[in-house]
Amino acid sequence: xxxxxxxxxxxxxxxxxxxxxxxxxxxxxxxxxxxAGVLAEHVHCRSAASLFDVSHMGQAxxxxxxxxxxLEKLAPGDIAGLAPMRQRYxxxxxxxxxxxxxxxxxxxxxxxxxxxxxxxxKHVDFPHIAANLPAGVHLELLxxxxxxxxxxxxxxxxxxxxxxxxxxxPFMGLAExxxxxxxxxxxxxxxxxxxxxxxxxxxxxxxxITQLLxxxxxxxxxxxxxxxxxxxxxxxxxxxxxxxxxxxxxxAALAWTIPKRRRAEAxxxxxxxxxxxxxxxxxxxxxxxxxxxxxxxxxxxEIVAPDGSVxxxxxxxxxxxxxxxxxxxxxxxxxxxxxxxxxxxxxRGKPLPAKVxxxxxxxxxxxx
Amino acid sequence: xxxxxxxxxxxxxxxxxxxxxxGITDHAQEQLGDVVFVELPEDGREVAEMEACxxxxxxxxxxxxxxxxxxxxxxSNQMIVxxxxxxxxxxxxxxxxxxxxxxxxxxxxxxxxxxxxxxFLETL
Lengths: 368, 124
Prior knowledge:
The complex is a heterodimer.
Chain A: H1 12-17, E1 21-25, E2 28-33, H2 38-47, E3 49-53, E4 58-63, H3 67-72, E5 86-93, E6 99-109, E7 112-117, H4 122-130, E8 138-141, E9 145-151, H5 155-162, E10 174-179, E11 182-187, E12 196-202, H6 203-214, E13 219-221, H7 224-233, H8 260-265, H9 271-280, E14 284-291, E15 302-304, E16 310-320, E17 325-333, E18 342-347, E19 350-357
Parallel strand pairs in A: 3-13
Antiparallel strand pairs in A: 1-2, 3-9, 4-7, 4-8, 5-6, 6-7, 9-12, 10-11, 11-12, 14-17, 14-19, 15-16, 15-18, 16-17, 18-19
Chain B: E1 4-6, E2 11-16, E3 19-24, H1 26-32, E4 35-39, E5 46-47, E6 51-58, E7 62-67, E8 71-76, H2 78-82, H3 86-89, E9 98-102, H4 114-122
Antiparallel strand pairs in B: 1-2, 2-3, 3-9, 4-6, 5-8, 6-7, 8-9
């Protein structure tokens, strides 16, 4: 990919001034780490508060009578049942049962909904949604809004000092807040397993507001490197790695995103293959994996049974700084999916012992 | 003054009699980021020139460490197995990887000196 073709977020100049190492990601120049380094950024997020630029992600409003019903035809989550100013994790599913993307959807009020989708999928998701809307429902893309995530146990103290109402938000609750005189949309959510917020900010105010947040005591910037190790420890899926258009939500261990009502209605894209797998049980399952030794097992590593036969593959793997050791997730044959099952990981030609393990590897600290 | 030589794979080599000590350069540790795992060769292993014989893993990726010269492994640094962050903190000192008894000490002279390595870094 040519450097010149990369898009930038409204925080590009700020990242560079903070000494970030920029890398191409989903077509954008993004900070992978700052001078503190991935380990320090990761640990800081779990102990204080870290600020991530996630402006590359796709934001949109979905508006009009029947908007939620229309979206439920494409996603098997309970979207119509969301109370105002509440959000939920859901999936865009496909006819053959695969996952087009995973996303967050929030009910603002009445017939107004807000979505955040993955950067690398927005060019697929948004045309797909737009093509499946009835007359009167509109998808309004928000390319002129930045998105920052403030994550960690101090996030509430930091943000409440500027907008006191965020302290009372429940997990997955939203609020329109005013930061430095600008109206922003904050949700109490994130991708680290920590308490925290994602804040949607108009582009032209993004740098000033981010600097204001960074100036609060206990806040450090963190890059994509720490974001990845944090979400892996939290057991959260990364689209394109742990889930994709070839993974059925059931084998991906995401059946919990499909509530009873939606199973009964069976009226979402891919309902037939997805509900069939729910009934018949999947042949493979996404599981957590803890190597017994110190060597990390990376994405693509083959998983073998004690007799050496191949039973699956690692889809995300690395070192968990808070765990203090390696951790991974991947797909294994269903008869090896029980927690505690002995497996081995083929690292540099050698089978390294590992066990199927419960996720998250580091307990979530969401506010309840 | 101790003579330290370098490779294009960003290893440094220090010669004491016929024993070469090998580590990775400051540039290498900087590029790798936080080192979290190191795998070292067994004592007594015979290694060829440019043979991959150690592994260094950072939070980001795994990389091979090559033996810049042919010889026999005589010692590996267990300190960096216990505390991989030594590779970041003291790459040219306490973060050394392994020692080789060289087959031919004259091979050492083929490696880049500091000026040549610095010039090489400029080209990257």
